[in-house]
């Protein structure tokens, strides 16, 4: 089993980052990964269908858009965390894939976003499989950071890069 863990510090209150990361539709963090995302249901048991861009993973899909599905397993808004399981991997090289997303406060004006994946690679060496997952998570965290900063700026809740408030 491969485990990938990635984090980023974001100079916004944890509640602002969770508003973005906790959105199971991935509306703001899927850019560059998915062409679209559809969600059926709400809360644990909800299923998101993701249409992965043909450019994902440096062309891993051969340039074709592919469809995969994840089911929301757990969600705790008070703790700002959730877990999800890949229930239809399509052509992706991941078996028994489970992901987590969490936001931890780092003072009143900052937070740490943590995303993990755990899976068994299929017909791909461990490092190549881990690199695919790392690339997706890193892009999602980059998109999360940008979206959270935009939201915080719009609401006046953003801390500047030096750690102060505007």
Describe the model.
This protein is of the alpha+beta class and 166 residues long. The chain has a single domain (2-155), classed as Alpha-D-Glucose-1,6-Bisphosphate, Chain A, domain 4, CATH 3.30.530.20. Helices cover 25% and strands 39% of the residues. The protein has 3 helices and 7 strands. A 7-stranded antiparallel beta sheet has the order 1-7-6-5-4-3-2. The longest helix has 30 residues, at 126-155. Residues 159-166 have low confidence and may be disordered.
Report the principal-axis shape: globular
Number of helices: 3
CATH C-level label: Alpha Beta
- Alpha carbon gap, first and last residue: 44 Å
The helix/strand series, from N terminus to C terminus, equals: EHEEHEEEEH
Q: For the largest beta sheet, what order do the strands appear in spatially?
A: 1-7-6-5-4-3-2
CATH overall fold name: Alpha-D-Glucose-1,6-Bisphosphate, Chain A, domain 4
The tally of domains stands at 1
Cα-based radius of gyration, to the nearest Å: 16 Å
- Using DSSP, what is the number of strands? 7
Secondary structure elements and their pairing?
Blueprint: E1 2-10, H1 14-21, E2 34-40, E3 47-52, H2 56-59, E4 66-76, E5 81-88, E6 94-105, E7 111-121, H3 126-155
Antiparallel strand pairs: 1-7, 2-3, 3-4, 4-5, 5-6, 6-7
Helix pairs in contact: 1-3
């Amino acid at each position: 089993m491969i485990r990938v863990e990635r984090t980023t510090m974001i100079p916004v209150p944890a509640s602002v980052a969770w508003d973005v990361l906790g959105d199971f539709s991935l509306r703001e963090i899927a850019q560059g990964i998915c062409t679209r995302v559809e969600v059926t249901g709400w809360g644990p048991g909800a299923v998101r269908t993701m249409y992965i861009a043909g450019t994902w993973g440096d062309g891993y899909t051969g340039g074709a858009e592919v469809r995969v599905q994840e089911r929301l397993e757990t969600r705790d808004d008070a703790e700002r965390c959730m877990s999800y399981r890949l229930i239809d991997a399509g052509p992706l090289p991941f078996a028994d894939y489970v992901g987590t997303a969490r936001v931890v406060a780092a003072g009143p004006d900052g937070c740490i976003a943590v995303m993990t994946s755990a899976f068994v690679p299929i017909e791909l060496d461990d490092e190549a499989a881990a690199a695919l997952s790392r690339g997706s998570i890193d892009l999602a965290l980059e998109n999360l950071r940008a979206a959270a900063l935009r939201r915080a700026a719009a609401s006046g809740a953003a801390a500047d890069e030096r750690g102060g408030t505007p």
